[in-house]
Amino acid sequence: MRTLYPAVLLAPISTRDEEAECCALQVRDEQIDFIASNAESLEEAAECPWCEPLAVRAVHSGEMVGFLMHALDPDDNGRWLYRLMIDRHHQGLGYGRAALRVLVAYLRDLSGGPDITLGVAPENIGARNLYASEGFLETGEVLDGELVMRLRT
């Protein structure tokens, strides 16, 4: 039997209302230490021209259910997934997996190296399992206390 995941759309965050909607999204209390806040991520994106923050929207309702940010690292010409978060009210419904799949497809069409790299907190077992199930492999590297995982596209 094939598992179906909700359809998601990745959309630019281009208005103050969308920024406020994004900043209102929250992870579960036990996940707070695993990821920077969306407000911090939007500030980082405003300062780094190579970062692209995107809203994760449910296609059926248009509701913002999560946030992600990727970047083309100018140092190594590699694609990085800097953030992926799904609001606590929408976790466990497949939105994270769906967003990751849409992002990987999107990044394949952009310039940059053939890999997608990310860092994940070692204690964030749920995220590590999600990334591994989508083909990301732990490289053995640790960057700023995070395990580095890479997907060959």
Automatic annotation (TrEMBL):
Q: Does the keyword Transferase apply?
A: yes
Q: Which UniProt keywords apply?
A: Transferase
- Which GO molecular function terms does the record list? acyltransferase activity, transferring groups other than amino-acyl groups
Q: Where is the N-acetyltransferase domain?
A: 13-153
Q: Which domain of life is it from?
A: Bacteria
Record SUPFAM superfamilies: Acyl-CoA N-acyltransferases (Nat)
- Pfam families of this UniProt entry? Acetyltransf_1
Say if the entry is tagged with keyword Transferase: yes
- Gene3D superfamilies given in the database record: 3.40.630.30
Cross-referenced PANTHER family: L-AMINO ACID N-ACETYLTRANSFERASE, UPF0039 PROTEIN SLL0451
Recorded protein name is Acetyltransferase
Query: From which organism does this entry originate?
Result: Pseudomonas chlororaphis
Q: What is the lineage of its organism?
A: Bacteria, Pseudomonadati, Pseudomonadota, Gammaproteobacteria, Pseudomonadales
